[in-house]
Specification:
Blueprint: H1 3-19, H2 26-34, H3 39-55, H4 68-72, H5 88-112, E1 125-126, E2 130-132, E3 143-147, E4 152-156, E5 161-165, H6 171-184, H7 208-230, E6 235-236, E7 240-242, E8 247-253, H8 266-269, E9 272-278, E10 288-294, E11 309-312, E12 318-322, H9 323-327, H10 332-349
Antiparallel strand pairs: 1-2, 2-3, 3-4, 4-5, 6-8, 7-8, 8-9, 9-10, 10-12, 11-12
Helix pairs in contact: 1-2, 1-10, 5-6, 5-7, 7-10
Length: 353
């Protein structure tokens, strides 16, 4: 196994020791041993973590009773909050409605911000309750948030917060409400974003409980991506949702340029790998994870994938894990760390460029 991959496995195993408070499952231990480490080195990792914890403990420390609330502050979600089950048929109408509404918010992000490379100016960010544009600065600063949990579109300025219930209305109606609300709060809406993505299609089967489940999945995946992104030394994109495809994505940019491409056009000249999650689309009609690369290394599919992952080549080339399969695993969070890390190492080794 390559040195870089061994280092990745060491980091992954150490994280599992920290997050499991020393209680490491058999799969994590076996993956560590399969990387060429020994049982003695397992004990060394546990001892090193224990010494670090003890050295960080203040002398005035007193035991704090274990409560549900303290579990929430430990850095990992409670087991019943992680990766909730999603039924592809049940979520379809709500997913399509939120997709249409996300495109409305994306229009304002693109319209109100200067272009950033790879169009990062138009993407949305995960928020505590759903998706947000983040603060859009101007004569009057404002933020738009799709609140999945409470079924609202929320507009916030420094002095006011107004909201509109999400009931499956057409995206054109929601866009009109945004303009009226912005005008009422003093925001100049001329010119407004173009309406070429708006539709009169309603979503009568929109469901706030289904939106809540979608939020739980989105939040769990975003959390896993944050942990994965923290260990990458090269440039990475924000963890963002693309309104046009409604996928959560993080892009790795090693800094290499693609031969024969115009360097002024970063879309075609920047080598990259894309780590993403989508709630289902025309190609795969159920929630799934994907890892793609540009340009595509011909030898990348030679990489052995863990159980539950497959190489996909119909419509696009990617390593794919179906969300349904992930939720059946003992530790979905750690599976994603290993899955993504191994493919990132493979991309480095094959010099994605």
């Amino acid at each position: 196994m390559a040195v870089g991959q061994r280092g990745t496995r060491l980091r992954t195993f150490t994280l599992s020791v920290v997050r499991g408070r020393g209680n490491v499952d058999d799969d994590a231990a076996q993956a560590f041993l399969d990387a060429g480490f020994t049982t003695r080195q397992i004990l060394e990792v546990v001892l090193g973590v224990a010494q670090k914890v003890m050295s960080n403990t203040p002398t005035t420390w007193r035991p704090h009773p274990w409560t549900r609330r303290s579990a929430r502050s430990s850095g990992r979600k409670l087991a019943d909050e992680q990766f909730p089950p999603l039924n592809a048929r049940s979520i379809a109408a709500t997913r399509d409605a939120l997709h249409a509404y996300a495109r409305v918010l994306g229009g304002w992000s693109e319209h109100s911000r200067r272009r950033r490379k790879h169009w990062w100016n138009l993407s949305l960010r995960p928020s505590l309750c759903g998706l947000t544009t983040g603060v859009i600065y101007g004569a009057v600063d404002f933020e738009l948030e799709l609140d999945f949990l409470h079924g609202q579109l929320r507009l916030k300025t420094r002095t006011a917060t107004v909201s509109e219930p999400l009931v499956g209305q057409p995206s054109r109606d929601l866009a009109a409400w945004i303009i009226d609300a912005l005008v009422a709060t003093g925001v100049d809406t001329t010119p407004a974003p173009t309406d070429d993505t708006l539709s009169d299609k309603a979503f009568p089967r929109y469901s706030t409980p289904e939106a809540t489940r979608l939020h739980g999945a989105l939040s769990s995946v975003a959390h896993a991506m944050e942990d994965f992104r923290a260990g990458i030394r090269e440039e990475t994109s924000p963890i963002q949702v693309w309104p046009h495809h409604f996928d959560l994505s993080m892009i790795w940019l090693p800094g290499a340029k693609v031969a024969g491409q115009d360097v002024a056009d970063e879309e075609s000249s920047d080598a990259q790998m894309n780590f993403g999650f989508v709630f289902g689309d025309e190609t795969i009609p159920e929630p799934y994870f994907y890892v793609t690369a540009y340009p595509w290394p011909e030898s990348l599919p030679d990489v052995a994938l863990p159980r539950g992952a497959t190489w996909h080549s119909q419509g696009f080339n990617a390593a794919v894990v179906r969300y349904h399969d992930l939720t059946a695993m003992k530790d979905p969070h750690m599976f994603l760390q290993t899955f993504w890390s191994d493919l990132l190492t493979a991309g480095r080794d094959r010099q994605v460029r």
